[in-house]
Amino acid sequence: MTTLMFPNLTANDINNDTMLMLWYHPWxxxxxxxxxxxxxxxxxxxxxxxxELDFITTVAPIYNKLxxxxxxxxxxxxxxxxxxxxxxxxxxMADAALNRMRKxxxxxDDLRERIWDEL
Length: 119
Known about the structure:
Elements: H1 2-5, H2 16-71, H3 79-118
């Protein structure tokens, strides 16, 4: 690389400007790559936080419904009505948890794909 950039360069010809030129390009390339990788990581982190917020917004009404069932706001509490209410809530929570796990598992593949695209 240095012979292509400076073909007739000898040890006596090296000064501060030449040293700067010798180290500037590799340093910029390394810094640029590190910045790209940091951007990719931050985008993946942003996606993970967005998925967690989606999960929280999905689960909040479910907990509200659970509270209503426990306090009897949805009618008189009987063992059958409580079982039905808990069964519905458990199904909603299972759907939300499975959706969360699916999104989290996709993050790993998405991060790998982003890194390989940049490389």
